[in-house]
Each structure stands twice: as structure tokens, then as C-alpha cells.
Amino acid sequence: MNPTDKSSRRVLILGITIPVGLLILLIGSLLFNFSLTSQKTAKIILENTLKGHVESLSHRLDEELSIMTKSGIVVRDVLQAQPPQARTDTLPFIGSLCANSDAYQVIYCDTAGEGITNSGIYIHVEQDNLLRDVENTAQYYTYLQNEPLTQAQAIVSVIPVVQNNKACGYILMYYSLNRILELFGDTVPYADSSLIFSTDGGLVMLTYGLDSVLSDQLPADTTLTQLLEQLDPRTKELQQAQDAIASGASGSLSVLIADAPQELFFHPLEIRDWYLTVGIHQPLYQQMLRDNWGDMHRLITYLLAVLLLFLVVVSGTMLAIHLMYKSRSHHLEKRATTDFLSGIYNKMATEEEISGYLTSHPHARCILFILDVDNFKTINDTRGHEMGDQVISSIGRHLQDNFRSDDIVGRIGGDEFLIFLKDIPSDTDLHQQIRRVQQLFCKFTTENELHIEISTSIGAAIFPTDAISFNELYKAADRALYQAKKHGKSQLYCNEGDS
Fold it and tell me: Exposure check for the chain: N or C terminus, fewer CB within 10 A?
């Protein structure tokens, strides 16, 4: 092996090994960095999942309250349009409202708090401090620790009924806290999780799953931030959580409740500063974290699947673009070769197709017809150019309907058309085709609504008897056309002299 070959081989080996070595180093570095960051990433993913559950719970509660209130506003609008004369007049409306919404009870009352429930029970609600000044005409939410009829806790949607820009009555829609617990059970699918519900000013109204760690009854004025501090005053994240709650943001913190660590996730509702806070026990949290972090193979498989999907999508996209480009090219090509008015080949495409066929089949017997519409100028002058266009279009359809797809038909001028028939095996077939064209086109009726009867003069020339190129064949057929017109139009004249 000469030095030049050795040098070339060395260059080739280096050209392969260096990129492969760099690729291996790159993959190793990526895997090492992945192993270092996977636990942190898994924690972020898990926290986002848990935050998503709390956010979903908040959204579901917001949505149910919003839909309930919107249905109440519809009834409010009816009562404003037709003010009730007595409280009992509202029973059909509030009864239907209760039956068709998430409210377990609906009350209509006047500004003094004298009201009637959807069940027809007269009630006085002034002592519940639900009603604001009559000047306040906007809907609002409030909270009851003990609703008078059932002694249950409830969220109340207060919808003022307005006359003369003042409240003249109220629709009160009661939403049970048990429904919040049902949503909590459906949305946060973890055992031993806890829920804290706080309302105006952060006042805690519900603590679910914390009874075992709250030794005493909470004071009535306990706020969410005070409760978090009471649960674990040593947590370093307390101030950060308090700042987030004060600004109406969502967040999370780790607390140690009765020596049992928990992860708390809080999210605001759309109602002022109301909050939902969900707690997940730390052992369950750590198990979920290990599941996400330790099963690296599953994550790599997922990444490979994503990569494969990406390749499939890219390949599919490229294929779709190619097909679209091909279809578009075919469409543009067809438009470039098609006569717009008649729907058949235009002059250039007709000549190219016939010339190409004659060049590649110099010994095939073929015949070329030139059709010229008789008195076409008269049609344009007497019936208008639109009618002339319809005649051209009708001839184009007639040509397409009566000839094979491999025959060549085209429009080469204003009222001139070409018909090129290929591979005619015998004289008998030749004469049959001539008679057929004569019967089809010397006289026929257009397809438009006027059914105009028109005639054409036709000249024909035979390849290779009359000519051996397209230009010569065309001239021969044109001479025959001249003879057909000379002999009185509506004639077919062949260059050989047969009329």
C-alpha cells in the first residue's frame, strides 16, 4: 500500500471515528446531566400535576357557581320585567331554578329580608346578614356557617332584583359545602388528602381531613395564613406562601403537621380572595416522586416515542407537502394546457401533443380534422358574445363526450378546433371515422337553454399520406377546410378530394 493510500485511509478512519467519538461523548454527557437533573425535573412535574388537580378543583367550583348564578340572573331578568305582586308569585320561578341548577335551596325575599323558599316556606333572612344596601345592585357571593333551615354551611349567591336603579328584592341561591367535598373527592384522587376552604379576608370556613391534628375548634376569625402558621410555625416557606396569598397567586409549601409532613397546594377562586388549599401526605408525595424519578427507562421510552412521533409527523408533513406540491403542479399544468372557455386543450398544448405523437410514431396512420364554426361572427353579432361563448363551450363538451381520452382534441383559435385520431388500422376504419366526425359535427344542436342549431365546416388530412410533420399535416387539413367552405359550408372535405 503506497503512502498516498495509507494517508487516505487514515483520513477516512479519522473522518469516521472522530464524529462517532464526539457523538458518544455528547450522548454520555447528556445522559449524565439527565441523571443529575431527573430528580429535580420529576419533582417539578409532580408538583405541576398536583397543582393541576387543585387548579382543576377551583375551576370546577368556579364553573358550577357561575352556571348556577347565570341561571339565577335569567330568572332575575324575568322578575324585573314582570315584578311579582306577592312572594308566592315567585314560587314557579324559584322552584324551577332550584330543580334545574346546583342550588339545593332558592329563596326570594324583599329588602327587609321577608322571603319564601322554593318549597313555599316563609322565612326571614335578615339575621343572616346576607343583604347589603339597596343601592348595591350587583350580584355577589357570601358564606353562611349555619343556614337557618338545615343548619348547614352554604355558599350563597345573592342576586338583587332591581327596579329604578335600586334593589327591590333578592334571589338567594344556596350551594352546599358537601358539593365542594364531592368535587374534591372526584378531582383529587389521593387517600388521606386534606382540604381547606377560606372565604372573605382569608377566613377559614372548612377544614376537611385535619380534625386529627387540630386539637381545638378553630376560632371564627381564623384566616388561612394564621392556620398555616398554626399548623407549622417553623416552616421556612410560610412568608413566601403568605405573600402569594396576599397577592392572589397560587403556590405550595411543605409543612410538618403533628410530626406528619404534608405538601400543601393553594389556588384562588374567581370570587374575591376565596381560596382552596389541598394537602398531600409526605409519604404519598415521596412515593409519587420516586415513581416519576426512579423509572428512568419509562421516561427514556417516552422520549424515544416522542422523537419517533416527531419523525413520523415530520415525514408525514413532508409527504403531505410533496403531495400538495404535486397536486398543485398538476393543477397549474392543467390550467396552462387547458382552454378556459371550451375545457379542452389550448392551441399550444394541442400542437405539442400532436407533434410529439407524430415524432414518436412516424409510421402510425392518423387523421387530423380542422373544425370551423359556420357563420360564427353572425352569432356573435346577432346574439351577443355571451351566446358565442356558450357555443364554444358546448362544442368543447361535445368533443370531450364523443372521443376517447387518448384522442387529442383542442381549440386553436376563436372558432377553430382540432381533432386528432390515432392508430387507425385500415381504410375501412378511416372512412368510418370520417363519416362519424361528419355526422357529429357538420350539424348539431348546442346544449344551452336556447338549443341553437349550428353547423361546421371540416377539413381533414391523413398522416403520413398527406404529410409527415404536424405543420405540413395542418396545412393540408387547412386546404381541405378551405374547399369545404368553398363548396357551401356544413361540409367535410378530405385533402385527398373526398367530400
Answer: N
Q: What is the 3-state secondary structure (H, E, C) of 110-172?
A: CCCCEEEECCCCEEECHHHCCCCCCCCCCCEEEEECCCCCCCCCEEEEEEEEEECCEEEEEEE
Q: Which residues pair with 461 in a beta bridge?
A: 368
pLDDT digits (tens, 9 = 90+) for 280-304: 877 777 777 677 666 655 566 666 5
Residues composing the chain: 499
3-state secondary structure of 449: coil
Amino acid at residue number 119 = S
Cβ 441 vs Cβ 371: under 8 Å: yes
Q: What confidence tier does 2 reach under pLDDT thresholds 50, 70, 90?
A: very low
> Distance between CA atoms of 94 and 87, rounded to whole angstroms?
11
Output the CA angle 110-61-270, nearest 5 degrees: 75
Do 46 and 39 touch, CB atoms closer than 8 A?
no
Rounded CA-CA distance 40/52 in Å is 18
Q: Is the pTM of this model over 0.85?
A: no
Residue with the three cell numbers 410538618: 256
How many angstroms separate the CA atoms of 313 and 292, rounded? 27
Phi, psi values for residue 371, rounded to 5°: -105, 135
How far is residue 60's CA from residue 66's CA, in Å, rounded to a whole number?
10
What's the DSSP call for residue 314?
A: H
Q: Which of 436, 398, 434, 431 is nearest to 417 (CA)?
A: 398
Q: What is the DSSP string of 191-223?
A: TT-EEEEE-GGGBEEEEES-TTT--SPPPTT-B
- In this structure, the strands spanning 453-463 and 492-494 are parallel
How far is CA 207 from its chain centroid? 42
Helix (H) / strand (E) element for 410: namely strand 408-411
CA pair distance 403, 422, nearest whole angstrom: 11
**Which residue carries 417553623 as its cell?**
234
* Among 216, 171, 218, 175, CA closest to 196: 218
